[in-house]
Amino acid sequence: MANERLQHSDGMLLLQKKRALLRRWDVLAQQQLALSHLDDALPLLEEKEDCLEDLQRVDLLLNNWDQRFPTELDEILEPQGLQRLLEKISRAEQEFARRVAQERNVTITEIKTLLQQLSYGAVKSNRPQPRRRKTIF
């Protein structure tokens, strides 16, 4: 692959690379779910984005390879194994999206509560305060 021309043997290497990238994505997705605070997810999201870009490049090369060397990719690919891995990644991503939405809703509720408390405090402070009377003995 270094010489920019795909060889027949490159197909297996590309498939191994794709499997490795999908496994890495699965590990990152599982790590996301294990986070106790969503603030810690940013480095994982950046690494997943890099992984996705690499997957897209590998898929492009695989498509080029398949056009150059038409073959039964499904026989080499073990589609059931990859399908299970993709389903596992999908479930983890959906669960993480659900957690993010839930966290967002909690944050929105907290902000609304704070705004209500602030507006109540502002209304309360606008009321005229009773004057203190001086008492003379």
Radius of gyration: 28 Å
Described by the principal axes of the CA atoms, the overall outline is rod-shaped
Biggest beta sheet attributes: none
Class from helix and strand fractions: mainly alpha
Give me the oligomer status.
Answer: single chain
How many individual β-strands?
0
Helix segment count?
4
Distance between the termini: 102 Å
Query: Which bin fits the share of residues in helices?
Result: over 70%
Q: H/E element string?
A: HHHH
* Average pLDDT for all residues: 80
Beta-strand share of residues = under 5%
Residue stretches low in confidence (pLDDT < 50, at least 5 long) are: none
Summarize the SSE layout with pairings.
Layout: H1 10-34, H2 42-68, H3 73-77, H4 79-126
Helix pairs in contact: 1-2, 1-4
Descriptive notes:
By secondary structure, the protein is mainly alpha-helical. Helix content is 77%, strand content 0%. The chain has 4 helices and no strands. Helix 1 (10-34) packs antiparallel against helix 2 and helix 1 (10-34) runs parallel beside helix 4 (79-126). The longest helix is centred in the C-terminal third of the chain and has 48 residues, at 79-126. The model has no long low-confidence stretch (mean pLDDT 80).
Sum up the structure in keywords.
137 residues
